[in-house]
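## Example pair
The file below holds two records. Each record gives the amino-acid sequence first, followed by its structure token line.
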Amino acid sequence: MFATYLIGLREGLEATLVVSILVAFLVKSQRRDRLPQVWAGVGLAVALSVLFGWLIEYTSTSLLSRSEDRELFEAITSVAAVVFVTWMIFWMRPAARTIAGELRGKLTEALAVGSLAVAGMAFLAVIREGLETALIFYSAAQGAAGDSGPLLALIGGIVTAVVLGVLLYASALRINLSKFFTWTGALLILVAAGILKYGVHDFQEAGVLPGLNDLAFDITGTLDPSTWYAALLAGMFNVTPAPTVLETIAWVAYAVPVLLLFLRPARRKPAPTATTTTVTERGADTGAEAEAASTPQRA
């Protein structure tokens, strides 16, 4: 459940920061009359994201009758989720420095067009996070059919993100978003590695890849699947005591180079001298804007 909580927290905070930037800009610009359009766009994005998640689940459980087809569908969604996770964590780190300015510019253009443009801009700013969350959650929660735990963990992560976003907007919380996105990004890479491993297993069960019975190792005697810590490792990173050779290769081939690339020191470039990430002025700066002025991040 930790994996789905982390997904909700990370994606939820990104979406919350985007919304807070839009709201802060309208408030500071004395355009509160456009706030209903922003919330309408956000609400539509959330509704469509939930619908997308339901469609994925419905397709897997109701539209696909053969087990091989379900396994293949789950494998494809797992690979797609890994692609989205990888793109998200690498995009967010440099984008955090400029996202506030870009959103202000787009919102300024939308204000000049009209209310529908404002709603559309808010919708597009949030829908990406929502669709990613639905797809990644489905892939991370595979194998937990009938268990409400992953869904509750996801909701808990989103609620936590919203609370953090509100506190940042209200200048009641100081948080180093650079470190936050670095640590959560590293953990999400391990989650993505587990999702990829699960996808390879599904491909093997669907008959697309060979080696379903070729185990890389079997430490069931040491890591008893019935124990709480084995369940924790399996739930967080899909670490199992008897993986196949291809599953193990996929996990290592993804996790090791991506982690090294993500955590490698960045070349220092001239930048503002501010060293902390804070929210300084209600209605004017948000955590994401402060992130843009923080010490240069490691790429």
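Second record, same layout:
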Amino acid sequence: MTARVSIVVPAFNNAEHIEATMRSIIAQSFTDLEIIVADHGSTDATVARLQQFLADPRVTLLQTEAGGGAARNWNRVTDAATAPLLKLVCGDDLLYPDIVARQVAAFDDGVVLVASGRDIVDARAKPVFRNRGINGLAGRRRGGFAVRRTVRDGLNSFGEPACVMIRRSVLQSVGGWAHDEQYLIDEATYVKVLFEGDFVGIPVALAAFRLSAEQWSVRLGRDQASQATAFHRALLARRPDVVSRSDVRIGNLRARVNAVSRRAVYALLGQRMTGVTE
């Protein structure tokens, strides 16, 4: 019998945090799950630390050959899923116990994507920012409205994949996770999905996204802003019925401001992102 929800975990050199991630998945109050992990050629102890979880019959461990970037492993593990609803959880993030139950309950006819707020935490899972995300998108919204909102915000208003649940058939129909958006693989995919149906936002933190120094580096912040502005312009060209020139102008300005803010946060919180103490 097919499970109701597939939780898929693309793992890569996550030895420090993968056990906490897996425990947070297995501890879900909603238990009708299949849990698929694909390791992308890790060179640390990630695979060894995953072995203990294979005792749970819901857990499957796959191997993905090295290369191809994140999109390769995200699509590899997603392609192995069989449930109608899908949640991707990166190998260092955390789910709170009721996220799956609450997101499953939010799906209805025409809904293709559900997202919740999340806490942003440091290397030790201590909150840095609480209940971030959704940004005025609580409740059921038209997909196009949600897309326009994320463009105007100049950031990913839906959050990282751990905050999101997607109707798998729709994700498949739009070609899976975006291959050509290195820093926007999640947001670009959500946008494709939301052009196919409605969105539901749950304005409560139901997951935790773990910061790292690499994710918030100066160069990465600059590159992310550059890719975001190009993505907004491409959306305007493709769907001017949804995104206006004003939306893009405002969103691009905010994307650049967000990049500066990330650099400031990195300067203040760099030690908490690495978990290193003096």
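Notes on the second record: The chain has a mean pLDDT of 91. The chain has nine helices and ten strands.
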